[in-house]
Amino acid sequence: MTIQLPDAAGTLRPYEPRTEPLALTTGAPFTSRTVFSAAHVVADPFADVSPDSPAAVDWDATLAFRRHLWSHGLGVAEAMDTAQRGMGLDWAGAAELIRRSAAEARSVGGLIACGVGTDQLTAPATLAEVRTAYEEQLALVEESGARPILMASRALAAAASGPDDYLDVYGHLLRQSSDPVILHWLGPMFDPALEGYWGSSDLDAATDTFLEVIAAHPDKVEGIKVSLLDAQREIDIRRRLPQGVRCYTGDDFNYPELIAGDEKGFSHALLGIFDPLGPLAAEAVRVLDTGDTAGFRSLLDPTVELSRHLFQPPTRFYKTGVVFLAWLAGHQSHFTMVGGLQSARSLPHFARAYELADGLGLFPDPKLAEERMKTLLAMYGVTR
Q1: pLDDT digits (tens, 9 = 90+) for 55-78
Q2: What residues form DSSP beta bridges with 224?
Q3: 253 in Cβ contact with 308 (< 8 Å)
Q4: Which among 206, 203, 241 has a CA at the least distance from the CA of 222?
Q5: Gap between the terminal Cα atoms of the chain
Q6: Contact 245, 157 (CB under 8 A)
Q7: pLDDT in tens, 334-364
Q8: Half-sphere exposure of 318 (CA within 13 A, CB side)
Q9: Does the predicted TM-score (pTM) go above 0.70?
């Protein structure tokens, strides 16, 4: 049985879906790497909302997906950009998500870290207001029992006049934090409002400021997440970190080589692409745990084409492909997103994502995925 898929030129071509999924099972905890999946939220499809309304979340389905990730040994990076922070999920929704997911993690023994930002600020802010907003979110995450991830702040990028302001704000927060945090550098390809973060659009200068923050407070930084889609820069930063500070790759283009590492070190992982790749990524890391780097790469390297497709420019809309694949895989009953973001990618983009994911064997029920893909095609007028 074939399915007609549109290509980038709008021409229909036949594709024959696979009939069996990749055989993947749960297993022992990882021993060589710490791996987080940044997880998406499931919208409530029956809520009477508009794109400007507060997010309506299907909490049962959202938490069920986190249990799915934990069952494979992955940690959950909660309330990050994959969960549509600043793109449909406001701070009130993110706070509720953090509280619920942290409680769920305690109940199942799952690893969790949660995003701390300043998205409750709705107007141009002063540096003092930025600090206060960060403090509010940091307190909530610490009270939940999760590890904080200090995310890049649009408000700070707008208010800061140079590197010294970043040193002051982050130094203040690190001195206040009860436990070590993860620092997150999110590049402008993920959020254009973060252009010039760390006080400069010169990445070398920005890197120096970023590392200066860490060097001043190494006991308060458990790790860093680098999301610049630049493998060599991540490697260079990784090699300059103080001893004991981890590097978590956020590079959804080059993650296999960065996690595998080299003779001078490796990256752990905190990745949005590990939302759809969760079970396969877990299987690969367990192979790496045995010292079989080639086996790890043979499992994970073929996934890069799918990841690069989902994260193609405009990169910030990768969340649409992530949720699309979750629907095809049966993790949710619908393809609806908070903020109406399901409309952010084209039908040819969805078709290619389906083809690549199916080829990898990511769908637990390939027939269900095929039927749902045909439903989407029919909505766009493809009836044969």
Answers
A1: 999 999 999 999 999 999 999 999
A2: 183, 247
A3: yes
A4: 241
A5: 12
A6: no
A7: 999 999 999 999 999 999 999 999 999 999 9
A8: 27
A9: yes
Task: Provide the angle, in degrees to the nearest 10, between the axes of the packed helices 366-379 and 347-360.
Answer: 170
Cis (ω within 30 of 0) for the bond into 148?
Answer: no
Centre a 10 Å sphere on the Cβ of residue 138 and count the other Cβ atoms it contains.
20
CA distance 293 to 97: 36
How many Å apart are CA 341 and CA 149, to the nearest integer?
Answer: 25
Cα distances from 366 to residues 119, 216, 310, 372, in angstroms, run 39, 51, 20, 10
**The residue to which tokens 């749902």 are assigned:** 372
Nearest to 229 by CA among 198, 266, 271, 279: 271
Q: Which residues of 336-354 are buried (b: 16+ CB within 10 A; e: fewer)?
A: bbbbebbebbebebbbbbb
Pairing of strands 147-150, 181-186: parallel
Query: In Å, how far are 101, 211, 221, 269, 362 from 148, measured between CA atoms?
Result: 13, 19, 10, 16, 31
Which residues, at least 6 apart from 304, have a Cβ–Cβ distance to it below 8 Å?
253, 254, 255, 256
Q: Which two tokens stand for residue 205?
A: 């200068």
Is-contact 43 57, C-beta < 8 A? yes
Residue 102 is encoded by which pair of tokens?
A: 């942290």
Q: What DSSP letter does each residue of 60-115 carry, written as one string?
A: HHHHHHHHHHHHTT-EEEESSGGGTBTTTB-HHHHHHHHHHHHHHHHHHT--EEEE
Phi-psi map region of 79: left, alpha, beta (phi>0 left; psi -120 to 50 alpha): left
